[in-house]
Structures are given as structure tokens and as C-alpha cells.
Amino acid sequence: MPQLNPNPWFFIMLTSWLTFSLLIQPKLLSFVSMNPPSSKAPETPSTTPWTWPWT
């Protein structure tokens, strides 16, 4: 059963994981968020009930 042979697949997985961890991930994490979270409490708008003309 050749699918149980981990010899070629383990090297491919290890290479792709190292490429992601060492090259791609630091580039992605260096981007600054365009909408940083704020510590301000959210405001709830005051709403008035709708008056229906037929009631």
C-alpha cells in the first residue's frame, strides 16, 4: 500500500510548513490593521418606536 509510505509526503509537509512559518507568516503579521480595536465603550443609539399610520 503506497499511501502508507510517509517518505515523500513527510518531506513535502515539512518543507511547506517551514516555508509558511519562516517566510510567509512574518510577512503577514507585519501588516498593520487598518481598523485597530478601541477601548471606548460602544454607544447604543436611542430609538423611538415607529408610528404606523393605519393603527
Number of H- or I-type helical stretches: 1
Low-confidence stretches: none
Strand content: under 5%
- The percent range for helix content is 40-55%
Shape: elongated
Largest sheet: none
Give helix and strand order, one letter per element, not per position: H
- Average pLDDT, to the nearest integer? 82
Helix-strand category: mainly alpha
Quaternary structure? single chain
Gap between N and C termini: 76 Å
**Count of β-strands:** 0
How does this model look, in words?
With 55 residues, the chain is an all-alpha fold. Helices cover 42% and strands 0% of the residues. The radius of gyration is 27 Å and the shape is elongated. Residues 44-55 have a biased composition (Low complexity).
Index terms:
single chain, 55 residues, mainly alpha, 1 helix, 42% helix, 0% strand
Q: Brief description of this entry?
A:
The protein is an all-alpha fold and 55 residues long. It has one helix at 7-29. Belongs to the ATPase protein 8 family.
